[in-house]
Each structure stands twice: as C-alpha cells, then as structure tokens.
Amino acid sequence: MRIPLSWLREYTQLPADATAEDLMADLVKVGLEEEDVHTFELTGPIVVGKVLEKTPEEHSNGKTINWCRVQVVPDGQTQTLEGRGIDPSGVQGVVCGAHNFEVGDKVVVTLPGAELPGGFNISVRKTYGHTSAGMIASEAELGLGAGHDGIIVLSEWGLDPEIGTDVLDLLHLDDEAAEINVTPDRGYVLSMRGVAREYSHATGTDFTDPAAGIEVPTPNDQGWPVRIEDEAPIHDTPGASRFVARRVNGIDASAATPTWMSARLRLAGIRPLSLPVDISNYVMLELGQPLHFYDADKLSGDIVVRRAHKGETLETLDGKTRKLHVEDLLITDDSGPIGMAGVMGGLATEVTDTTTSILIESANFDAVSVSRTQRRHRLPSEASKRNTRGVDWHIADEAAQRAAELLVELAGGTIDEGVTDVGEQAPTTTVRLRADYPSAVVGYDYTEEQIRQVLTDLGAYVSQQRDSTDGTPIFVVTPPSWRTDLQIPEDLVEEVARIVGYSHIPATLPVPPPGRGFTVHQRMRRQVANALAGAGLVETLSYPFVSEAQNRAFGSADEASAADQAMIKLANPISSEFGWLRTTILPGLLDTLRRNVARGFRDIALYESGRVFLPGAQTGSKTIPPLGQRPDDDVLAQIEAGIPDQPHRLAAVFTGHDSAPGPGHTPREYDWQDPIGIALDIADVVGVDLRIRQGTHHGFHPGRVAELVVEGQLVGYAGEVLPKLLEEWELPARTSALELDLDAIIAAAPDVVEAQPVASYPATFQDVALVVDDHVVAAEVQQTLRAAAGELLEDIGLFDVYAGAGIEEGKKSLAFNLRFRAADRTLTADEASEARLAAIAAAETEHGAVLR
User: What domains lie within the chain, and their CATH numbers?
Assistant: First the structure.
C-alpha cells in the first residue's frame, strides 16, 4: 500500500515537515512493515511558459522541428537564472520536436538545471542550428505516464495558470508516498482510512474518519432494481451480503481528471485512465471500498447477483472472453453476465467518453468466493485484493455517495433520487477476553485500563463481566465492522501487544527442557546423512509435487502394480503438470540431476532424504472442524484416518566419474556397484545386515537391478536406471540410482550396536573359485558359502567374475576371498581348509557349483 503524504494529512495530524521515512518509522510501531519511498523524481526549475513564437524548420534528416520563443516569467519581471543561453528578459529560445501546440498556448518548460526522471539533466545545448535553453515537456518526460504524442498543453488539462508558476506545485508533483507491506489479515489498512487510523494508534494523535462527514440518503424504491440470488453459496456463506446502487445522470465522462487527484493516484501506484475510472479508484483508496461503474444506458432490466450457469461466458474489460465456472459469482442483467463480482466488469457495459449516465455499484462480496474466482481466471486487481481480505460492511453506502458527489463535482450532472441498498449483514461476532489473559500470553503486565483503552481505540464495543469462579474481569468485545480478522481471544491479545508497544515485551531466551535430545530415528537419520556426505555425495531437496507418470515410473516395482497405484491428487497444485504428491523420491532427484547435467556438470553423486505420501483406504476427511474449539474424539479419529502414511525414504543417483582425472590417475566411471555400495554403507552405519539379491523393477535396467533386503523384508532397489527413462529425462547413459525405505532399516536396527573386539590372533586367508551356470546370482552363492563355512569365517568377498577361454559356454567363474580367524587361538591351515571344503560342498549341493 502506497500512502501519499498530502492525502494522509487530511485525516491525521501528520506534521507538515514529516517525510515518508518518518511516517514509516511510526507505522512500524504498530506492526506495518516499511517497503519503499516513492516520489516523482523531479527537481526544478520547471515552470509554466507561454509560446510567443513557433517557427517550423525542416532539416536534412527529414525531421521537422519547431524553433520557439517561450515566455517563462510573468510580465514585468526578469529572469533569475544566469549563464550561457539564458535571456534575462525571461523569453527563452527552445527547440521542440512536437507539433500539438500553437502560439499562445501555455506549456510546461523545464529550464537549465532541472532534473527529470532517470537522471536526465536539462542544460543549454546546441541543436539543429540553435541554442536551446530548456525543453517543452511531455507527460512521459515528466514521468507521468506514456501520455499522447506530444507535449503538455495546460488548457487541455483544464488549467490556465500564471506564466512562471512552479509546475511541481501546480501539478502536485512535490508530494511523496511511503509504501508499506500489509499482511492478508489486515485488509482494512489498504485504504487511507485504515492507514490514518493506524497512524493515530502509533502516535496517540487524533484521527478524522473520512467516512464520518458523508451524509447518505435513506434507501427507497426509486433506485435501480437489484436482487441477490445466490443458489450455490461457498461454505454456507452468501456470495454477496450487501449491494448499494446509485445513479448519476448528465455527466461529461470526457472531462479531465484534476491534477491533485491524478498526482495522488500516480503516487499510490495507479495509472490515471479517465475521470470516472479515476474517481472509482480514488474512493477505493480513500475508504477501502471497491466500486464499479456501469454505463446505465447500456444496462437492460434488473441487476441480479447470482452464480454462473454452465456454459456461460463473459467478455471482460480486458477484451478477453472467459468461460465461466459454476462457482463464479456474477453481476447480471436481462442480457446475461455483465461482470464478475468483486473481480472485473464486463466490456458490454463499460463506461466510455460518450457515457452520460453512470450506475455506481458498491457491494460487499464473500472473500472466499472472490478469491477463488480471481485465481481461477488469473485476474488479480486492486479491487479483488481488497475484496479477498474483507471489506467493511457498513462503508458501502458512504463510498457510493462519495463517488456520486465527486462525479457531480468534477463531471457535472446530478445524482438520481433513487437509492438501492439490498442485502443482510452477517451475525456480529463477540469475543470474550479474560483481563489476565494478555499478560499470561505476552509476558508483560497489562492493566485492565490499558486493555480496555486499546480495545476501545480499535473501534470495538466493550462491556465487562466477571468470572463466576474467581471473580476475574472478562471483557466482552464486539469488534468493529472493518476488523473481520478479530475472531478469537488471541486476536485481541495480539492487538493489545501491538498497540501498547512491542518494545514492552520482555526478551527471554527459552530454556530447553532437560533430558531431551534426538530420538533414535532422528539420530540415525543424521548418522546416515553424515556418512553419505563423507562418501562424497551432495544432499539436495526437491518439491514433493510430481506428475502422475513420474510416480508410476518408480512408485511400484512392476508395471501392473504401477497402473493401479494409489496416489494423492492436489486440489490446488502450483502447476497442472505436477499435480500429485510423490510416492517415491527418485523423480525429483533425477530432475535435479538433469538440471545439473544441462548446466555442464558431468561427475555427479546426489542424495535426498525425505517423506513420501502413501494413501490408505481413506484420504482426507469429509468435514473440517470449526476454529476456536477442540474437535471431539470421533472427528479427530476421522481426520487422522485420512492422513496418508508418510515414511522416510532415501534415494541417491550417480553419473559420470567418481573423481577428477589427474597425472597418473584415471577416474572410475560410476556403475551399478556404487548405489549398492552406498546401501551397504547405510546398513553398516545403522547396524543391520543388508542382503543383496537379483531383482526386477520396471524403472531399472533388466538384469542390472538388485533388491535390498533386511531380515527378509524388501526395503529398496539399486541399479542402473532404465535407458528409456534416461532418454526422457535427457540424462547420460548408465546413470545409476538407489531408493530405500529408511524407516524400515532403522526399525530393524538393534537398540545398541556393540563394537567388535580387536582381534588378538592372526587371520588365515584362502581363495575359492567356483564354476556355476551364468544365471546363478553371485550374492546367493556367497551367502551359501558364508553359512556353511561356520563360525571361523570372519569375512567373505567376491573379487572376480570370469567367463571366456577355459570356461564352458553358459557358465561363469566366481572367485571369492575367505578370511578365517579364531578368537582364542592361532588357527591352523587344516582348520581353515576344513571350513573351506564344507563351504564348497554346500555350494555344490545348492547351486551345482564345481571347484575350478
């Protein structure tokens, strides 16, 4: 919200010498954030000049310029400026490229020493064979908008000032505006009325309500017929609760907007367009009530406020034809829709320069309904910004009267005797506030008088009772009509703290309760994250919003299950493409990988840990409990039953090489072994026994994917991503990945991981090479060897897989290294060999292995 200081001074005691910075410093005290300072960025001398001579000259470049003599000081006075090209008589020679003026016209002249927006300095300069001591200015050059093709002729603006008059003062360009940030719950501050009230709270000065002096006639049956027929209210609230209509006849819609009004609108961030539009915007900024003007002669029949019918369309003021939704609240007449309530009017009833009769709409619309409509049609506006935050129900008639009076004052005409005012106010909210509650919440000892004074200054009606149990005073508060955000005691506590002053709130550091720390799950997740970072992986975060196809690619192991996979669809996604909650982390991680590859990075190892969303039999709840009271156990149980399961998952992706090349060093390419190795590292950190077995997953390369198993439970997959998916993601070939259920792994971890004692006796090493069918999984052979070798086997590892010369076709050789050790003695070679032979025998029985 931008606040022109001259405007605010009409309703407050803002000092004449106060700057925008001073104003913002005061408003910060009541919780309004300062944003910026806005000025017209002009410095003088800029004066009114009269054209005495105008001589057209055509030049060799094909351009015709005008050599002008312009009087810039009143008759009988002399020029105060001195220097080269300055005529003491006050008649300046100026070169002008515009042609929309004549001798005798009064224009705006920027003299040497002036500075225009953008740091453009005016000086005496030689151009087109003349010494030009100044410039005749246009609207664009003064920063007042694009303007028309030519310079400002003051008579066209309805002005006839004295020659030499300071233009900054004449056009009110010496004003400035303070910009503040207004939070959504304080929509009443989006008006000069609201800001002035907040300034009085901040400074303790008097406030003049701009609506207080407006005399509103009594509604009668001579006004324009209006009916509110909302057959599909949202959340049981009518779309329109009040509709005031006033008519002004015989106006001149082409009349110029006065300079004081256009200057204030520009400083407030609104571009002047035409007098009727400017008046509607001016009243909206002044009182906070959005208005809409209709060309009354283009209306047909009664105005009806209703929801859209299926298939209806509306051509809005921006010239676009919009397909309406059945929830859209409309303003209609006998011809059909003529506007979207609280958002934008229709083109068919637009006010133009030829309009002579205007019907003023000043209405109160449901904030939720307006918000959904403006989001649905992507039509944010200053009017919808206020309507979506709640507008004072009682200000509609004053705003309509104010607009009608301004139309009569500035555009001529008369106000029609008819006054339409239909609708019904919602029940008044009453809030009970114990006198000791603000002190208990804030930590500062507020007196009863302070609390009462604050609530009264807010405009609330306050009565007092006493608690029947302990006699504590209770304030019974009816908030003012412009404070729709005050609903519960905590809202009132916030107002007390805000207006008495945040500086009174004591600064106390919270003391953490003793004996608490990370839970087991939190501690283990952190240990896993540290281990992955130590292994050279970079942690990333991605949005939990994915497409349906991405969920189906990795959410289930086989295509049949993926087709039937349940997932949660978002009601209001930030993008229609990504309208689902993730059931797997890999799509977001692969998308992060794609962005990095596209930016030239080639050797990448990333991981992400986060929640996925797995819906159960019920999603969401049928009803939303009201605010301000605790739902009963059945309602809470229903809400909890609709919350999806949200386990922690961990995923990692690898592409490129494991290190940078260097002298004497050739980096290794990432392959399927890396995600499996990371999975084993995670299991080692947590303290579980992770088994690797051959698997299948329709998102991974067939034959190059492993299932990760803990205590017989499948907890994840690791391997190379399916080439088809890599092409779709535009990722390098042989990119590998893993995803596992971190919660399941942590749940299988022992409460205490015991450290193994340092071995006191030497180890004995033996190798074994077994020839097996090429479809036999090496991990299964290794598991058989481990189990059969007995307790003397300390470790086993696969170090070679060979197929080729010397090996029968359809066979392969698996070579394992076995490490034997006894805890109480030095192991003999015979003991190790005996254990080795037992392991070989088991492999022969289980897998048909033959010793090589």
Answer: 2-35+175-203 (3.30.56.10), 46-170 (2.40.50.140), 226-423 (3.50.40.10), 431-504 (3.30.56.10), 520-612+647-747 (3.30.930.10), 764-851 (3.30.70.380)
